[in-house]
Design a protein that fits this description.
Low-confidence stretches: none
Radius of gyration: 17 Å
Number of helices: 6
Order of helices and strands: HHHHEEHH
CATH topology: Arc Repressor Mutant, subunit A
Helix content: 55-70%
Shape: globular
Mean pLDDT: 88
CATH superfamily: Winged helix-like DNA-binding domain superfamily/Winged helix DNA-binding domain
Number of domains: 1
Length: about 160
Amino acid sequence: MHGKFDSRHPLVGLSDELIRLNGRLKGMFAGARRSEGLGDSELTVLNAVVEADRAPTVPQIGRSLGQPRQIVQRAANSLIEDGLIEVEPNPDHKRAVLLRATAQGVALKREIDARADAIAEEIAGSLDADLVRRAAGLLHDIRKELEARLRTGESK
């Protein structure tokens, strides 16, 4: 970190930078989804469902994003209404259904991704693409480690 609070735990500094970066990136990429009428929460849930290794539940998405289940449920309901995702029974849980993207949902997500890629190409300038890929990989690894600790109760 570079600032007057360098003495903080690195994880706190990382959190602060991610909040700022998230705000900046949301603003930069808002145009990629604007014409689709999707809000931030709908796009986030659509992304979580489309990119999941296996069909997630609303509570799983909420935990992964650090969002209340109710907010994720509202976004999921909107996406279901629009035919972008669908529910299916969950053999592991009676009430927490699994969410799957429809073909329309996947196609829309890919269109938004293509527009976002074009925006990224335009604004990336001299950013080193390999550095950005490594940073994304490191952030992924940190998130997975923290999630694993939270699941096992190590953080308590």
